[in-house]
Structure formats: structure tokens, C-alpha cells
User: Which sequence fits this backbone?
């Protein structure tokens, strides 16, 4: 049976479970890890609050007006099974499988080729950023699922199903609204052209048809507005607390910062985590002529049930050329990529790559389609890209990046587990000086690091400024858990100089953590435990003094210092 016939015979309800099994198998070693970073700081506490009390507004962490769909989804899983990291991460693998199934469908719609669809799904699944996010409880994976399925339905002209999926995306994360609004603007610009051409009513290109598309796309605003109205009524804030709005909006509007963020975002969708391998290969392939297909081969068949754009093949000999993705379909993809890159260059205090999660499959789809169109032995470039991505999972890039972009996040978790284990075993009853997210890891047993809350004293980070502040109140703590709050490569090959570091400090919250020995000397203690792996480190400090008892500070054992600006 040919690949196309096999794909035609395999419905989504068969593809989805098969992908899910593969995702779970690939993440098996990660499924029992305790919660990490923004999981611990916002998403798990928010979902846990709903699970326990039914409150859509979290109370054990600062409410930042993120929509509630991820909390509802996780709470259902915990209700059916039980509250545990294994259940949570398995639930997220289901969402990852939904995303990859949408990628499969998008590739079939745009190329009609099962080989291209399979290759795109494979590369998306093992791309380090997507692979790492596939089991982490962040809202971005939910938003990617809704957005990609919405794009698939939109390209199939099923615009109201697309509207439903876009609505689910924005109820997962508010920033997902950028894609339907960008496409609505795009379709609006095309209305005069359709009206002038006089296309017949009922056709997809008629001006009335385009107005219907715009209305369907804009409909995603309605549920988001409803959520904001509810949040405002309950909290008095529309978009979250004042500090959250400042960090993610008002302070990001400096022109210099926008240009710097745009450069970062462009790098994220073209080069980060070895993405430059398929992107560079695709650009090189554009220099080659399109390959002619053998009319009798399966490669020349068009996939049944998909709508190929008009104009992808012309009469005569050129009809045998391998088809490109249709121009209208390409336009939808490019509008989506451009709108998100620009949007997240203007808004969002942190330059986290997971914000662009729906874009990586689209970039890879364009690359794989180009490989196949321009090169006979195109699967070799797919294999090369796959090898680069697998390497990126384990080998860190020669520049600073967020550990959640590959398997480095597991290294951080293991370091924190080991350090907290030392505190619990060797210093019971200690009050621990530390920074977020360890404040939550020590203070909230539900995150999986401790069985009972440990009293904490919080500082922002381990920079010289913060350590100086901590040294002025030594009576507040009897131990310290210090760690690298930023990934600092052992060898920083791509160093753009002091000026770049100054800009990162000013606009992107960059700082340098002091090493454990220096922190210990500044605070008058000693390092009793230390570990370092691949540029990440953690250490436990002890002080020759008696810190405050839990009875003296009854709130500290259960309170945490979650930052006001969780993402």
C-alpha cells in the first residue's frame, strides 16, 4: 500500500493514540519529576487551588489573569486519578499528542503528502523546545494545540470550527488572540480585491465569504473578554496585578528593547536549538530547481480529501514538478509567524521561547516541504535535521538560554532535589535563605520536593546587591540554599560584549549570581554541600548561629515568595 493510501485510511482517532504512545515512551524518564520553575510558581498552584476549592482565581499564588482552561483540564485528571507529577505530565503528553496530530493534519492539507506529514511530525516532536515543553504544565502547549487545529480548519475552509479552536486557545493563554486577529486583519485587506473581482456569493473568495471569515476569526475575542470581565469583578484587576502589567507590557515598549527583542525572536524561529540546520538547508534548496515526479509513482499522487490551492501546478511539463505549498496557504503561515514574532517582541517581559510554540511546526513544515520539492533524496536532510535536534536535547548551545528549552531543566530539578534533601536530612527545623523558585519548592509540599513545609526567607536572586541585603539581617535565617538562577555556560563562546550585557541587564532582567564560596563569606557561613552539572550549580550553606524558630514566624513555614510576575 502506498503512503498516501495508508494515510487516507488512517483517521485522526488512530493517529492520535499512536502519537501519544510515542510521546509518553520518549518522556518516560521525565514523567515523575517534581514541578519546575513557572509550573511551580503559577500553573500548578493555580490548578491545585481550583482542584481543592473550585476557585477559578488562584489564591495560593498571585493571580495574573491567565485564563482558566489549563487549570480545569489538570483538575479533571487529578480528580479521575490522583494529584501527582506522573498524572500531570501524562496529561500534558496527551496535549502534546493533540498538537502533533494537528501538525500531521496541517501537513496533509498543505502538501497532500503523508511522507511530508510524517517527517514534520517527527521533527516537531524531537525539536528540543517542543520536546521539553511536551511534559511541562505550561499554558503555552494548550495554546499551541488550539492554534494549530484552528489553522488546519481554517485552511480547510471550516471557519467556524476554526473559531471554536481559536477560542479554546485564548482560554488557555490570552496571548493566543494574536493569531486570529492577525488573520482577520489579513482577510480584511483582501475584501476590496474580492469585491472588485466580483466573485460569486458562496465561494470562498467572494467578499461576503471573506467577511464571514473575519467575523469567525474575531469571535475569539468574545470568550477572552468574558474571562477578563469575570477576573475584574473578582479581583479588581483586568489584566492582572499592577506589577505583572508593568513587567509584561508598560516597561516593554521602549523602542530599543523592542528592536533587541525582535532580534531575539527572529533567532528563536530560525536558529535556536539547532533550528538553523533545517532552515539553512531549506534556504540552500531554494537555489535548486523543482524536482520532476514520475507520473506513475506514488509521489505524484495528490492526497484525497485535501484542498490544494489553485495555481500550484500548471499545464504541460510543469505539471510533473513536485508541488509547493499553495500561495494562499503560505500566506496564512507567514502571517501567523510574523504576527507572533512582532507581538512577542513588543509584549512579554521574558523572552521565553515557549511563547512561540505554535510557530516551530510551521517553520518545520515549510522546511520539509522545500526539501521534498527541490531534492530527490530529501529524506537525508530530514535525517540531518533530526540528528541536530537530538543533539540539541543533550548538548547546550554556546550562549545563555532558558533551561526549559531542552533537557537542561531536568538537570536543574535534580540539583534542587539533592540540595533540598540535604537540608531536610541534615538541618531539620532550619529557616532557609533562598530565592524563587526554591522558596516555593521548600514551602509547598504539593510541588514534590518536601513532605512538610520548610520555613524560608526570600531574596530575589544571588547577585551581590541581594546578598548584601541578606547580610544585613543574619538573625532571620540559619541556613541557605543558593543556586544558579540563570544558565551560565562553562565556556561562553558567543559573547557579544559588555555593551550587550548592559542592555540585557537593563531590559531583560540579566544579573550575575555570586559563586557559593563568595556568598558564604559574605553571609558569615560555610558551604556544607555543593554540586555542579553542565554550568548549573546548587549549594547548601550553614551558619554558626541559631535562626528563628517556626513558632516565632508562624507564617513562614507555609508562605512562599512567589514573584509577582510569573509568566
Assistant:
Amino acid at each position: 500500500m502506498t503512503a498516501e493510501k495508508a494515510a487516507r485510511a488512517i483517521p485522526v482517532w488512530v493517529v492520535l493514540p499512536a502519537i501519544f504512545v510515542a510521546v509518553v515512551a520518549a518522556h518516560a524518564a521525565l514523567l515523575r519529576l517534581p514541578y519546575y520553575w513557572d509550573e511551580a510558581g503559577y500553573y500548578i498552584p493555580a490548578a491545585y487551588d481550583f482542584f481543592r476549592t473550585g476557585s477559578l482565581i488562584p489564591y495560593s499564588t498571585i493571580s495574573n489573569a491567565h485564563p482558566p482552561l489549563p487549570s480545569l483540564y489538570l483538575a479533571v485528571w487529578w480528580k479521575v486519578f490522583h494529584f501527582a507529577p506522573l498524572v500531570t505530565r501524562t496529561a500534558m503528553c496527551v496535549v502534546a499528542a493533540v498538537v502533533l496530530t494537528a501538525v500531521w493534519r496541517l501537513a496533509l492539507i498543505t502538501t497532500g503528502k503523508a511522507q511530508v506529514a510524517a517527517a514534520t511530525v517527527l521533527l516537531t516532536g524531537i525539536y528540543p523546545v517542543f520536546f521539553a515543553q511536551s511534559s511541562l504544565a505550561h499554558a503555552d502547549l494548550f495554546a499551541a494545540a488550539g492554534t494549530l487545529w484552528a489553522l488546519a480548519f481554517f485552511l480547510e475552509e471550516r471557519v467556524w470550527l476554526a473559531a471554536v479552536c481559536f477560542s479554546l486557545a485564548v482560554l488557555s493563554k490570552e496571548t493566543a488572540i494574536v493569531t486570529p486577529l492577525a488573520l482577520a486583519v489579513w482577510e480584511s485587506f483582501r475584501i476590496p480585491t474580492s469585491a472588485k473581482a466580483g466573485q460569486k456569493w458562496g465561494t470562498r473568495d467572494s467578499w461576503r465569504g471573506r467577511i464571514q471569515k473575519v467575523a469567525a476569526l474575531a469571535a475569539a475575542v468574545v470568550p477572552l473578554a468574558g474571562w477578563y470581565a469575570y477576573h475584574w469583578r473578582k479581583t479588581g484587576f483586568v489584566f492582572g496585578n499592577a506589577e505583572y502589567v508593568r513587567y509584561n507590557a508598560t516597561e516593554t515598549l521602549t523602542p530599543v528593547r523592542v528592536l533587541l527583542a525582535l532580534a531575539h525572536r527572529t533567532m528563536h524561529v530560525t536558529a535556536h536549538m539547532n533550528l538553523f540546520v533545517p532552515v539553512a538547508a531549506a534556504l540552500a534548496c531554494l537555489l535548486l530547481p523543482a524536482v520532476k515526479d514520475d507520473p506513475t509513482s506514488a509521489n505524484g499522487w495528490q492526497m484525497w480529501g485535501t484542498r490544494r490551492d489553485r495555481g500550484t501546478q500548471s499545464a504541460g511539463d510543469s505539471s510533473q514538478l513536485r508541488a509547493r505549498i499553495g500561495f494562499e496557504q503560505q500566506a496564512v503561515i507567514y502571517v501567523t509567524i510574523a504576527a507572533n514574532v512582532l507581538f512577542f517582541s513588543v509584549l512579554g517581559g521574558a523572552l521565553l521561547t515557549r511563547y512561540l510554540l505554535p510557530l516551530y511546526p510551521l517553520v518545520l513544515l515549510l522546511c520539509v516541504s522545500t526539501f521534498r520539492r527541490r531534492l530527490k533524496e530529501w529524506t537525508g536532510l530530514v535525517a540531518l535535521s533530526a540528528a541536530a535536534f537530538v543533539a540539541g536535547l543533550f548538548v547546550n548551545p554556546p550562549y545563555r538560554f532558558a533551561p526549559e528549552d531542552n533537557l537542561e531543566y531536568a538537570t536543574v530539578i535534580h540539583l534542587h532535589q539533592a540540595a533540598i534533601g540535604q537540608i531536610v536530612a541534615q538541618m531539620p527545623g532550619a529557616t532557609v535563605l533562598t530565592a524563587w523558585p526554591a522558596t516555593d519548592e521548600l514551602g509547598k509540599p504539593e510541588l514534590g520536593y518536601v513532605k512538610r513545609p520548610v520555613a524560608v526567607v526570600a531574596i530575589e536572586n544571588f547577585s551581590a546587591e541581594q546578598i548584601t541585603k541578606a547580610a544585613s539581617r543574619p538573625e532571620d535565617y540559619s541556613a541557605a540554599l543558593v543556586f544558579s538562577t540563570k544558565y551560565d555556560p562553562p565556556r561562553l563562546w558567543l559573547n557579544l560584549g559588555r555593551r550587550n550585557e548592559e542592555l540585557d541587564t537593563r531590559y531583560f532582567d540579566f544579573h550575575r549570581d555570586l559563586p557559593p564560596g563568595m556568598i558564604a563569606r559574605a553571609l558569615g557561613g560555610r558551604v556544607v554541600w555543593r554540586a555542579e552539572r553542565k554550568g548549573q550549580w546548587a549549594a547548601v550553606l550553614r551558619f554558626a548561629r541559631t535562626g528563628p524558630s517556626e513558632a516565632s514566624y508562624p507564617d513562614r513555614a507555609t508562605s512562599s515568595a512567589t514573584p509577582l510576575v510569573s509568566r
Q: What stands out?
A: The first strand starts at residue 432 and ends at 435. DSSP finds 23 helices and five strands in the chain. The two ends are 48 Å apart (CA to CA). The chain has a mean pLDDT of 86.
